[in-house]
Amino acid sequence: MDNLPSERVKQLQQVFKRAGVTAEIPPDIQVALWMKFLFITVWSGVGAVTRAPVGIWRSLPETRQMAEQGLYEIMAVARARGIALPGEAMRTTMAMFDGLSPQSTSSMQRDVMEGRPSELEAQIGAVVRLGQEADVATPLHEFIYHILLPLELRARGKVQFPG
Question: Residue 141's domain spans which residues?
Answer without folding.
Answer: 24-155
